[in-house]
Known about the structure:
Mean pLDDT: 95
Number of helices: 12
Strand content: 25-35%
Number of strands: 19
Shape: globular
CATH class: Alpha Beta
Amino acid sequence: MKLLNKKLLFSIFFFLFSLYGFSQDNFWLVESTPVETVLEQSKLPRAADVWLEMINGAKTSLDIETFYIANEKGEVLEKILKAVKDAAARGVKVRVIIDESFYKSSEKSADELDNIPNITLRKINFKKIAGGVMHAKYFIVDKFDLFVGSQNMDWRALKHIHEMGVRVKNEKTAKNFSSIFEIDWKLCEEYDDSKIKELKKKFGDSKLSSKAPVKINSTDYGIVKLYPAFSPGIVTPSKYSKEITELVKIIKKAKSSLCIQVMTYSLKGENKEEEFDKIDKALRDAAARGVKIKIIFSNWAIKKGATENIQDLSTVPNIEIKFSSIPEYSGGFIPYSRVDHCKYLIADSDISWVSTSNWERGYFYESRNATMIIQSKKVNSALEEVFLRVWNSSLVERVETDKIYQSVKRK
């Protein structure tokens, strides 16, 4: 009898340990804040710290897909690139994909990772593949630990730009991103129509969607449900959720409120004869049914045509819009920095959208991008705190319909 009780206790202990001890699924919001601003008050984990922890913890594989890499001597990205090299030195297989056209025209820091044992760097010609760029920013550690967000692998994105991302520890979610990575990895070498069709079929199995999200019991937020969406459809398997479809659906389903922070916005269509008005129409319809909408666009959204689109949208009852401006660094002007680069949305009290896409047609139909869609009241509350910190600060000004705005200096 005693032996039976011991066996029973052991079985219960093993079951509980397997349930809780081996289960490492988790979820975090991850922010980057520009120094010398009120945004530094945020208590969310910082991207630089999270990236270092993830990369230093890599045991077998590290797959990185990022728009570009921009390092600066003495800045924090130097530590992160060293961590990547150190991972390779201890036997981790590292693969890196960057956009070919952007690499050719600008930053060459990616060369630091070339010709290093266990690191393979490839460039993808997304201009030829779909007409745009490889604009996604994500990486996967050991097929399990995922980061995706607005942060480029750029030293400025970690110190001088406002960014939002998520870290997800979950095998199913990582598998979805790994499949997208494998498609793009192969497209770096061959990208004719038959190859794209073959890859979409080979890596087309996705069991995650709005109807079948992953459920994670997270440390910081309790139960979190989530699923990813991708762009563009032309190189994304049919079973995978598409960003533009999910975004419009979320806006259409909103009942009471939408808080949106995204860098740029435009109704410019594929040609002069058409407008890209899917998002604009969904926002106007939501406002018409009583949804209170607050939007923050960065001052980089100020450009001919787009400014007029934003001004017109701001006249709609129930829609309030502000432009954000991050003051110049005390150390002097830094090109391509000091900007709100976030791309997130908060719908009602329980749906969040954290993305790599700006709200223009090309990001959804011509460029590689990725989004995490999250259902959690606590995550919404944390994102709302970030949003209101900007909304209520001196960093923003309300959009005026009769004002002539001037584009800001970027470089």
